[in-house]
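Please, structure for the following, as tokens.
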Amino acid sequence: MRDSEILNRFDARRGELRPYGLTCELWTPCLMRRPDRHNEIELNYLPEGSLTYLFQDRRVQVPSRRLALFWGLIPHQIIHSEGTAPYYVCTIPFSLFLSWGLPQAFTEKLFKGELLLDAEQPSDEPDYDAYMLRRMLGEVGGRYFSEIVSLELHARFLRMASAMKVEEGRTVLPVVSGEISLVEQIAIYIARNYRNPIKVADVGAAVGLHPDYANALFKKTFGVTLGEYIVEERIAHAQRLLVSTTDSVADIVFQCGFGSVSSFNAAFLKLNACTPREFRKRFR
């Protein structure tokens, strides 16, 4: 087996939000002892078998022969697998992905935490994606690896986006090259600190921007304000705790960065149309 074909698996000791970079690797299916979180777009492709992920409170299956994409900043954990055959994993840095200028409705679904599946391939057609990924795997470590992967995946994602019937949602505008690194810094800062009592002014100060400009730039990219996004991150964390622990609602409130039970309950009801206790009962 060549070095590029060494099988990888999730390392539960790796630091949260530690970047993977631009990669194309073969992984072996295995259950994950804890969720992973990283600021890259992740691609999974299984020539055979299936994987079941836990995304916050949702269980989502990745079947064989269908390209799957998700934003790694959304906590994700493999909780079941069918088969033992290796599968392909590619990670694309957030800044590189944004620079491709893919259709806004397509990227918006990723940033909202959805796992996107490409259309099912007819069983009698050649496995184009497996061929493409196998070729890219052979380029790992080569002189033009970054350029090849960038061009191949950019084109593949465009085809995937054009084939999907994506409903328009939040209004977002394309970011320019000088803004991409700032947006990434903001997203990472919130991911690291949403459990603390941070405010919009703290986010702006952390990335060296006036709070109003940081807020406008973030809304331009994600379609929500910084304040709304921080609340969504906190509620998503609360959902995970409600499903996976027996902690009281009062304890969860303060683990997620809320200053009071009343503000937590109001935000939770607005985003989930149910109370935390009803949510826990529904998903456990």
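The chain has eleven helices and nine strands. The chain has two domains: 3-163, 177-283.
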